[in-house]
Automatic annotation (TrEMBL):
Its EC number is 6.3.2.3. Mg(2+) binds at residues 145, 147, 370. Substrate binds at residues 126, 149-152, 215-217, 221, 268-271, 463-464. It catalyses: gamma-L-glutamyl-(2S)-2-aminobutanoate + glycine + ATP = ophthalmate + ADP + phosphate + H(+); gamma-L-glutamyl-L-cysteine + glycine + ATP = glutathione + ADP + phosphate + H(+). This is Glutathione synthetase.
Amino acid sequence: MAQWIPDEVLMNTALIKDLADVAKDAALLQGVLMRIHEASNSSELVTYAPFTLFPTAVPKAVFQQALAVQIHYNTLVDKISQDPDFLKEALASTIAVDDFTARLFRIHQQILEEGRSQSVVLGLNRSDYMLDQREDGTSSLKQIEINTIAASFGGLSSRTPDVHRQILRLAGRMQESQCILDNNPAAGLAVAVAKAWDLYGSQGAVVMFLVEGEQRNILDQRYVEKELWKRNIPTIRRRFDDVYETGRLDQDKRLFVGGQEVAVVYFRDGYMPQNYASEQAWDARLLMERSLAVKCPDIGTHLAGTKKVQQVLTRPGVLEKFFPEQPEAVEQIRATFAGLYNLDMGPEGDKTVAMALAAPDRFVLKPQREGGGNNIYGSEICQVLEAVKGSTERMAYILMDKIHPTPVQNYLLRRDAPLKISNCLSELGVFGAYVRRGKDMVMNECVGHLLRTKSSEHSDGGVAAGVAVLDNPLLI
Ligand code: ADP
Ligand code: MG
Ligand code: MG
């Protein structure tokens, strides 16, 4: 990603101020909206979701590579989710020491013993990448992670292209403004949800969004809901507590919540330990997993998105096992892998510890967590590893090569933040959507993208974590 905005624009403070004022109004007009922190459960006070003043240049070939590999990632996640032996082996060391993953895994085991009640599977994921700067000036696409649960911003990212188009026109960059791609992940996600709802086959049943207590980003989800209502598919929003209190299964394991039959449970909550505030939340998760409702994701698909699984996939021969007859899929997926290293007990893990301690700035240490702000960088890697290296506790982490995108200057527009130029790094996400019934993949698509940009001062964190902001790729 290269600097494309000329200095005479970037440094013209009067112009930047004007552009920023227009950009904020354009974002409000377009519906790039978020509730404010102070009132996260009311839509009386909303503001623009944070975004960049200018779009960020992304090489066309790399962008297309990311879109093209998505259907293979969909297939891979889906295959992993159906392979209990693989999940058991891949996660064995992690679940020995990480309570959260262990708990999820227990649900997985319980469902296996009881037998899966629903043969329809709905997968909505987002594979995230950064462009690693090579010495020859080109960049290569490296996967940061794949999110198989509660991947967000498919809605708001459909509204940001028009904001950037307008800013570019206002800045006299007519040609560039025509290069901002249309994008509508929410519509594609909804097509998959609708298909799953249809296959469930009960006209009166609803799609239940399982939502967090704090709903700042509700408007992002409303875009998906809107697409479903357009098809006369009713949606409801419920929390773990609601499911615990009013949920039940009938004799056929149909899920009823508050008396309404649920065809699809779409998890926008449940991805981190704090989401399970009580045992009741875990009971509710189990109830939903056991039910006939289509789960997005089901527990196996949730586990397939762990960082530990990501690391195990880089072992020689593992991808080949999942794609025995598709060497081109193996090649495309593997090309996006960064170096990932295990911290299991034994010589390999010992080697990883030594390597990280010798050059901590080359790596990121990751626990099995989601939602931003959990990874460990730099000297803190040494502190943590020194403390855990002699014990099994180290198995809760994996180590990853740090990706180095080229920093680009831009302005990050955020409520209550001063307007100042920042050195920025971007992360490209690609949305995948698929539906399988039994052995038949009835839909497998790439449904859009998300570019997020953050100041390079921050090592970690996404938009919801208050670090990154929404952006658009400008293909070059
Ligand atoms: P989470 O599930 O919490 O989003 P991620 O693996 O996406 O976890 O890491 C969070 C953030 O940390 C990313 O959005 C990215 O900014 C940064 N990050 C993660 N892995 C790397 C890496 N290998 N190199 C550079 N930055 C990384
Ligand atoms: Mg994640
Ligand atoms: Mg992430």
